[in-house]
Amino acid sequence: MKLGNILQAITTGMVKGNLDKEISGIQMDSRQIKEGDLFVAVKGTQTDGHAYIGKAIEKGATAVVCETLPETLSETVTYIQVNDSEDAVGRLATTFYGDPTSKLDLIGVTGTNGKTTIATLLYNMFRKFGYKAGLISTVCNYIDGEAIPTDHTTPDPITLNQLLGRMADEGCKYAFMEVSSHAVAQKRIGGLKFAGGIFTNLTRDHLDYHKTFENYLKAKKAFFDGLLKTAFALTNADDRNGLVMTQNTKAKVATYSLRSLADFKGKVLEDGFEGMLLDINNREVNVQFIGRFNASNLLAVYSAACLLGKQPEDVLLLLSTLRPVSGRFDSLRSTKGYTAIVDYAHTPDALTNVLNTIHEVLNGRGKVITVVGAGGNRDKGKRPIMAQEAVRLSDRVIITSDNPRFEEPQDIINDMLAGLKSNDMNKVLSITDRKEAIRTACMLAQAGDVILVAGKGHENYQDIKGVKHHFDDKEVLSEIFKNENNQE
Question: What's the pTM value of the predicted model, to 2 decimals?
Answer without folding.
Answer: 0.80
